[in-house]
Amino acid sequence: MKDFLYVFIGGGCGSCLRFLLSYLWTSARQVPCLADVLFPWPTLLANVIGCLLIGLFYSHAPSWHIKPETTLMLTTGLCGGFTTFSTLSWEGLSLLRSGHMTLFLLYLILSIILGLLAVLLGTRL
């Protein structure tokens, strides 16, 4: 039961951080250009940062003497709440439905490749 609490706390924090990132991105763009409106930059950024963090946490938790329950909170909770495959899928479908095949493919390819590279970088730092 304690593990559920750790995941709950981490997930709530991760979700709030993702919301804050999207809010700050939108607020900073007072006159958004077309690329900013169409391309889901905040989700891509959240997913790549989350991949970097999960690589760091899983790879270095033992050497940093992080307790297993804290690792669970940081990985499954925080990173799970911060990253979002469902939003990536929804935004990708929205790009497809609006006829932006090139942006859809770019988004999908960048999400997968940058995500994998970020996890790899996290394991190497």
Could you describe the 3D structure shown?
With 125 residues, the chain is mainly alpha-helical. It is 83% helix and 0% strand. The protein contains six helices and no strands.
SSE diagram, text form:
Blueprint: H1 2-28, H2 34-38, H3 41-60, H4 68-82, H5 85-97, H6 101-124
Helix pairs in contact: 1-3, 1-4, 3-4, 3-6, 5-6
Based on the model shown, name its key terms.
125 residues; single chain; mainly alpha; 6 helices; 83% helix
Give a concise summary.
The protein has helices at residues 2-28, 34-38, 41-60, 68-82, 85-97, 101-124.
Shape: globular
How many strand units?
Answer: 0
Strand content: under 5%
Q: Poorly predicted ranges (pLDDT <50, ≥5 residues)?
A: none
Number of helical elements? 6
Structural class assignment: mainly alpha
Radius of gyration: 16 Å
How is the biggest beta sheet arranged?
none
Overall mean pLDDT stands at 92
Helix content: over 70%
**Amino-to-carboxy terminus distance:** 33 Å
Helix/strand order: HHHHHH
